[in-house]
Write a structure and sequence with these properties.
With 652 residues, the chain is of the alpha+beta class. The chain folds into four domains: 132 residues, no CATH class; 194 residues, no CATH class; 124 residues, no CATH class; 122 residues. The protein is built from 13 helices and 38 strands. The strands form nine sheets. Strands 5, 33, 34, 35, 36 and 37 form a six-stranded antiparallel sheet that branches. The chain has a five-stranded antiparallel sheet with strand order 4-8-7-6-38. Strands 9-10-11-12 form a four-stranded antiparallel sheet, with helices on one face. A hairpin with a 4-residue loop joins strand 35 and strand 36. Helix 2 packs across helix 5 and helix 8 runs antiparallel to helix 11. The two termini are 44 Å apart. The protein binds fe (ii) ion. Fe (ii) ion binds next to loops.
Length: 652
């Protein structure tokens, strides 16, 4: 045994223990055929394993009360929690990382986790030959890093960081998952010919109250769904079980650095530790630590995504009752190499998806195209660091928005906003003609406005007389005004932006209704990439998330068509258009409903509401009583019955 340990560390012994039931397989693998000498350390390790196996097995049985299990065809690793086995609790993502290198990631995209008696955790993995783990060294590094983070925590004020939890009478406080709760009608009538699923995602911290500074945007992604069918409705909600969520569930507390921790020198130190060790220790790439909490999307080929701009899209599927089930990060058959923004644009007419992404802090900025479930184009553009949240498309163009916000490390150190308005940096657009075929940096034309401004979300864009017409809430500089992440920026107000490609000029116009503070703009989802007449946006009250009504915009008449004002104390969210049976993007495009959750802040209750999108009557068509509070969140989407059926047929 001593000799064996000389070849491999004590942790190697542990790893071999996991793989030993299939040790015979190792000798038949290609690397060992090519390099027979390489099998000697493994053989010796196997001897060490068999010597240690008996006592390990008894130990695990004593600690967990559950006998270790191995099954043919897969290797099941039984992990018992204690200080001694802390390292093995965290071993699985490390294994997964190694499998990435071996190209076996598909086989362990969703490791099987089980909990038994509150102690036992079992992971099904296929470990590659010759890759052994050093859990002693791992445990030491984990402990040291954890101690360093705890020391830095002493310089941060957790209580102050979660003051947002008191906003709007606790509207953002997290909830636990649930499934298939029936909804009752509070007022109106639920249309019997309406069927589909309303989805809305938002941050929902899994560990509450938090031990780490936590920003309002930091919570783990939770998808809330309302399944409507045959005049009946049910509610479900579920965490997006990302790798980050799984690791922190295993640890029982927060591990990855949060947005809320990034302030002051201690915040910068945490970023450094995080990039050097934290993600590496868990075996996850940076874009695998996304929370999937910002937006939900439906791809042209039928996949459901939960998105966050710091990571890959996260796939989930709805069961027949509308309950979301996590599937895992979508690498688009391995063709996606970087994080994707939360707002890719889907052209349902052509089946194309256009997306952008960037590495925060002044790294690369890229734009891409997806077709048939794979990335076909990806081009890096010379775009300075900024708050690049959205892009837009028309029938013939893909357009990048480069606004006036700049990431400022100095502001982070001083505890200020992450991005600040830079008045010298004018708003500009990168226009790519879809007729160009292949995306190249040279095929983008950059057109600059004559003033500084920022656009967070776009409402609608179309072409008219050879020009691109964009409707979007637009904000200008306002010194001292800060939002949750943006500094020195004024309120967003609806504008019409005319991009003249021939003259390479930009004109920013106010429209009737530009006095309203408005955000979360949306048109019907099947209208993206073509021309529709109507759009909708959330009317803001005093605060950033204080959505007090819904605005309807008429692009042809160039006006604010109507506004629904909620009763005092009622707060809404992003207005989602839900088409009625005969409504299409080209015909009667406002025939349908506006759906959203309402938060009755004074009562502490939630409802799901449908307004008539055509009449914009303040009296809802139907208001459904939610059996429990639904926290406020971010973006939403309506899944039609056809889309619901299609997503159910997609391979996992
Ligand atoms: Fe967004």
């Amino acid at each position: 045994m001593t000799v064996a340990l000389g070849f491999v560390s004590p942790m190697h012994v542990s790893a071999v223990r996991y793989t030993s039931p299939h040790a015979a397989d190792f000798h038949s693998t290609a690397p060992f055929k090519k390099h027979p000498w390489a099998s000697w350390p493994l053989a010796l390790s196997c001897v060490a394993f068999w010597m240690r196996h008996g006592c390990r097995k008894r130990e695990a049985k004593r600690m967990s009360g559950v006998k270790r299990r191995f099954t043919a065809g897969e290797r099941q690793v039984s992990l018992a929690p204690s200080k001694k086995t802390l390292q093995t609790v965290d071993v699985w993502p490390k294994c997964r990382r190694q499998l990435h290198r071996y190209g076996h990631a598909q086989s362990v995209a969703n490791p099987i986790m089980e909990h038994s008696n509150g102690f036992q955790q079992i992971v099904s993995l296929t470990l590659p030959a010759g890759k052994l783990l050093d859990d002693t060294w791992f445990g030491m590094r984990f402990g040291m890093l954890d101690a360093a983070f705890q020391l830095l925590d002493c310089f941060q004020d957790v209580e102050k960081s979660v003051l947002w939890a008191n906003d709007l009478n606790g509207a953002f406080l997290p909830v636990r998952p649930t499934c298939k709760l029936p909804l009752s009608v509070r007022s109106g009538t639920l249309p019997t010919d309406l069927s589909g699923v309303f989805l809305r995602v938002g941050p929902n911290p899994a560990h509450w109250p938090p031990k780490k500074c936590t920003h309002i945007f930091d919570g783990d992604g939770m998808v809330h769904s309302v399944r409507i069918d045959g005049g009946q409705a049910t509610y479900s909600c579920a965490f997006m079980e990302t790798e980050r969520w799984k690791v922190e569930q295993q640890l029982g507390s927060e591990w990855f650095v949060r947005l809320g921790e990034i302030h002051g020198w201690s915040g910068l130190a945490k970023i450094l530790f995080n990039s050097l060790s934290s993600n590496k220790l868990t075996g996850l790439m940076t874009y695998e630590t996304s929370t999937a909490n910002t937006a939900v999307a439906f791809t042209p080929d039928g996949r459901l995504w939960a998105l966050n701009e710091s990571g890959f899209p996260f796939r989930f599927q709805l069961d027949r009752s509308g309950c979301p089930n996590s599937l895992g990060f979508d690498t688009l058959k391995g063709s996606l190499k970087d994080s994707m923004s939360a707002h890719p644009k889907f052209d349902q007419r052509t089946g194309e998806t256009f997306f952008h992404g960037f590495t925060p802090g002044g790294g690369t900025f890229y734009v891409g195209r997806i077709f048939d479930g794979e990335v076909t184009d990806r081009v890096e553009l010379a775009v300075p660091d900024g708050f690049h949240h959205d892009i837009f498309i028309t029938e013939n163009y893909v357009v990048i928005v480069d606004g006036s916000m700049t990431f400022e490390p100095q502001s982070v150190v001083e505890g200020g906003p992450l991005w600040n308005f830079t008045s010298q940096r004018k708003l500009r657009f990168g226009v790519w003609p879809r007729s160009a075929g292949k995306m190249t940096a040279e095929s983008f034309t950059w057109i600059e406005a004559d003033e500084a401004a920022e656009i967070v979300h776009t409402l609608h864009a179309y072409e008219e007389d050879g020009k691109i017409i964009l409707w979007a809430p637009l904000a200008r500089e306002l010194k001292g005004a800060t939002s949750f992440v943006l500094g020195d920026i004024g309120p967003c107000r609806m504008h019409r932006v005319i991009i003249d490609i021939a003259k390479t000029s930009v004109q920013i116009q106010e429209v009737p209704g530009s006095d309203l503070h408005t955000e979360f703009p949306r048109i019907r989802d099947d209208g993206v990439g073509r021309r529709v007449r109507y759009g909708y946006s959330a009317v803001q009250g005093d605060g950033e998330f204080d959505f007090v009504g819904i605005a309807k915009w008429d692009f042809e008449a160039c006006r604010l068509e109507a506004v629904i004002h909620f009763p005092t104390g009622v707060i809404g969210g992003e207005p989602i258009f839900i088409p009625s049976a005969k409504s299409t993007a080209t015909d009667h495009d406002d025939h349908g409903y506006i759906g959203m959750f309402l938060w009755h802040s004074e009562l502490g209750t939630s409802t799901f509401v449908l307004y008539d999108a055509r009449t914009m009557s303040p009296q809802p068509v139907a208001e459904l009583e939610m059996p429990r509070r639904v926290p406020m969140g971010f973006h939403a989407r309506w899944i039609t019955e056809d889309e619901f059926n299609l997503q159910a047929t997609m391979d996992r």
